[in-house]
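Q: I'm writing a short explainer about Aldehyde dehydrogenase domain-containing protein for a general audience and would like to include a description of its predicted shape. Could you first generate the structure from this sequence?
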Amino acid sequence: SPEIPDFACSLHRSGKTFETRDPRTGDVLAHIAEADKADVDLAVGAAREAFEHGKWPRMSGYERGRAMHKLADLMEQHTEELAALDGADAGKLLLLGKIIDIPAAVQMLRYYAGAADKIHGESLRVSGKYQGYTLKEPIGVVGIIIPWNFPSLMFFLKISPALAAGCTVVVKPAEQTPLSALYYAHLAKLAGIPDGVINVVPGFGPTAGAAIASHMDVDSVAFTGSGEVGRLIMEASARSNLKTVSLELGGKSPLIIFDDADVDMAVELSRLAIFFNKGEVCVAGSRVYVQEGIYDEFVKKAVVAAQNWKVGDPFDVATNMGPQVHKAF
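A: Of course. Here's the predicted structure. Afterward I'll give you a sentence or two in plain language.
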């Protein structure tokens, strides 16, 4: 098991903490500072100060890109620890974390680091003796609420474009998986990203998440999760300051297999579609429709394939599937 960073228990305004547990055993990994509305106010205030008066939005895109690349360098240096944190906290396979999740998060961050100095407006030809042009500017403070199934990928899917544009962010990781987000904030400080640019507020949806969605000083909110919560965020955003909203909401995704399919390949793909990442995927193949000509053969082979899929310790290289984290799936 990985060593849990001691900054996971930092002091905060509410004074409350919550437990993050190892889904393999149910053991407590760490006690995490629980953010409430007062803590969100503090984080948003820091983000607003950094945006209005700090140097991050006023850096050249090239300079922001360099800082983001330095953070990516640190992530590569600490891949083992980061994959271990997501393995212990989210039940994700350590091996896949090292070869897929963390490298993909690094690649995403580097992509947007490269885009930071390529954000351009346009000059427009208009009728009469006029000149028109567009100027693209950072929107301001961005609130980010991410789920537990891909803690690292979701963190950088959301913050990377915001950082490249010169925004500051307040991130609420899922209460089930806060550890890697806290570690990324630590690495960001080591990378030289100024204070107040990346703020992490661990906590629960009805308190910390709701405070972000309804905050009058948050300019935009990005959320990945359920349709039910997505509706609440849209409503809170509309009732507050009409902040812009970006939603990625999960759903059901069927597989349709016809008689002319390669049955063995179809079985393998259907097994991967539902069992990859423990089925905790927004587009998991949760239903399979099979044409009647190969139905019986498919079902027989699918049963064998499922029986051969090893459920166990995510730190064991022989394991195909770690423990479930959240009952929603």
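A: For your explainer, you could say: Residues 5-11 have pLDDT under 50 and may be disordered.
Q: Perfect, that's easy to follow.
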